[in-house]
Amino acid sequence: MTRGTHTLTLDQGTLDVTVDLHGEQGHPFLLLHGGGGPQTVTPFAALLAGQRPARVFTPVHPGFDGTLRPEWLTDVTTLAQVYAHLLDVLDLRDVCVVGNSIGGWTAAELAALGSDRISSVVLVNAVGVEVPGHPVADIFSLTPVELSRLSFHDPSKSRFDPGAPTEAQRAVMAANRAALQVYSGPHAMADPTLTGRLAEVTHPTLVAWGASDRVVDAGYGRAYAGAVPGAEFRLLEGTGHLPQSETPEQLLPVVWDFADSHATHRPRR
């Protein structure tokens, strides 16, 4: 893994984005983490790059893991604009964008922007839309242990350590939580206008869903897929809100096969 920092200039202002890269050649992936931070996707990025011809770029959402979030970056729509510009700066093409949870919301917003650098989109237990009868759990009212029980098919696979965190770990966790609250906005992990934008998405889209997710249930996932023209829905048994963490070997071929089937150039293993 190599880490770099890219300075981006948008209409709103300038910011630095930290990006980890796994793999040196092959199909490019932009892998977007959820509220748990980049550690929820880093092992999967290494697995994907290790088992397939893939270059996996995993940015850290500004405000997470000690990075700075500029005051003007306050919503997922703008975060998606940041990553669209990042693709330009990196000069990546034929990109498969994969996002989990709020990273999935960001991936959906990226798809709605319609960048011609993107060839496919995979939303993994994404949030961001409003679905009557299928509310997103109020994660900010939950303890880490309670959230783990809702997130995992088998909570014993959670990486959460119930032991006392260090002062540095507590500071990072608090900063991550504060950044997540800013990005999630006032509508309980949703933007009421997103569904309308998804109707204009033209990128091939797969919505993959852990069947045991109790943060956002499978009915919510099916509605998400229904909002994107032509989107596929794939239910993943025996896993929850974080398939890339709980059952990475199950998720990997799902992501790879979809990305490969829609690639402009198809590198083979």
Please explain how this structure is put together.
This protein has 269 residues and is an alpha/beta fold. The chain has a single domain (2-261), classed as Rossmann fold, CATH 3.40.50.1820. Helix content is 36%, strand content 20%. It is built from 9 helices and 8 strands. An 8-stranded mixed β-sheet has the order 1-2-4-3-5-6-7-8, with helices on both faces. 45% of the residues are buried.
Topology of helices and strands:
Layout lengths: L1 E9 L2 E10 L4 E6 L9 H10 L2 E6 L16 H15 L4 E6 L1 H12 L4 E7 L19 H8 L15 H18 L9 H5 L6 E6 L7 H10 L4 E5 L6 H4 L1 H14 L8
Helix pairs in contact: 2-3
Short description:
This protein is α/β, with parallel strands linked by helices.
CATH T-level fold name: Rossmann fold
- Gross morphology: globular
Annotation, overall tally of beta strands: 8
What structural category arises from helix and sheet content? Answer: alpha/beta
- Describe the biggest sheet? 8 strands, mixed
- Count of discrete domains: 1
Strand content: 15-25%
How many separate helices?
9
Low-confidence stretches: none
Computed over alpha carbons, the radius of gyration is 17 Å
Order the strands across the largest sheet as they lie in space.
1-2-4-3-5-6-7-8
Order of helices and strands: EEEHEHEHEHHHEHEHH
> In angstroms, what separates the terminal alpha carbons?
20 Å
What is the CATH class? Alpha Beta
Name of the CATH architecture: 3-Layer(aba) Sandwich
